Amino acid sequence: MREAWGHFYGTAFWQRRRKLQLRQHPLCKFCADDGIVTPATHVDHVEPHRGDWNLFCLGALQSLCATCHSSRKQQIEARGFDIAVDADGWPTDPNHPANRHR
Ligand SMILES: [Zn+2]
């Protein structure tokens, strides 16, 4: 599936940012949380940018392996929201039920 903002990923800006992210964080973050060392191949936005160019350019990134990236995507699509949390452990996705009554 290709989203409306798919072209963001084809920009020279993103290619540079992605390369830098993988150089600085070469291991999959989710695997590392489980104590597993896996080389990352995907660069993912911690907070879904949903086509917001500023967020796309400036939002925090995380390096993931293909398995974690695709399973996370599937979970988000199945649930309708992302379960990623910020440094305080609070869900970052505004669509997460915990954020709906704020
Ligand atoms: Zn992983």
Largest sheet: 2 strands, antiparallel
Write down the domain tally.
Answer: 1
Q: Cα-atom Rg, whole angstroms?
A: 14 Å
Strand content: 5-15%
Overall number of strands: 2
Detail the topology: elements first, then pairings.
Elements: H1 12-24, H2 29-33, E1 42-45, H3 53-58, E2 61-64, H4 66-79, H5 97-100
This protein binds zinc ion.
Zinc ion is lined by residues 28, 30-31, 38, 64-65, 67-68.
Short description:
By secondary structure, the protein is mainly alpha-helical. The protein starts with 11 loop residues before the first helix and ends with a helix.
Describe this structure in words.
With 102 residues, the protein is mainly alpha-helical. The protein has one domain. The N and C termini lie far apart (32 Å). The relative contact order is 0.14. Bound molecules: zinc ion. The site of zinc ion (ZN) has 8 residues, from α2 and α4.
Short descriptors:
102 residues; globular; binds zinc ion; 5 helices; mainly alpha; single chain
